[in-house]
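Let's study my pick:
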Amino acid sequence: MRTSLVALAAAGVLAGCATNTLPPTIQTGPNAEVTVDGLHRVDNSLVQMAWMKPDMDLRGYTALMLDPVFVAYQKDPQDRRRAEQVGAGDPNFALSPTQMENLKSWFHEAVVEAFSRDGAYRITTTPGPDVLRISADLLDLVVRVPTERTGGRSTTFTRTFGEVTLVVEVRDSESGEILARAGDRRDPRSMEVTSMTEVSPTFVKADTQRLFRYWADIMRDRLDELRGVERDPGQ
């Protein structure tokens, strides 16, 4: 099966740059890894998992409709007191309602900022023939450090705040047709050095926002590249 030039370029939209010298390519043919909803695995992607429709054509899409960000823990979260009582060796601490809303807002803001930059893409809440619908889920969230301090003036240092998996789905906003899906799991601290860092709201926020900007910039960069491939060579 021959993969179109547009589809090959589209493999970079969420897949990102190649992890080596090979370009992102969509698996085709009888041995291709295909999901139940018709998406083909993308090899050599920057993110850990990526699937695309091999005949996907994003020409004509100039706007984005963003679904609310969904967050789910990897396992039942615990407050600090409960974790200490049960002696959990690998606890998953609970975010407060405010912290949870902040997490969602930071990711939404990163995506809006990345795609609104230079007025390249219109952000809308209304489906349309030129609108892509993007759903972003933050899944398997693990918070490895207490989110609230108990009595006393204790200071905590850590190499990792936790991990979270981003799963992004891209659909046609009118038909709901699934066009692409990608997933990537990271620790916000891995975006910087892995030395010990004091656990504080300032550092946690900065590292988390840096990770979200990284993911949002990948999405924006790949869409820009796709538009460049699709541009008339004579222009």
In short: The two ends are 31 Å apart (CA to CA).
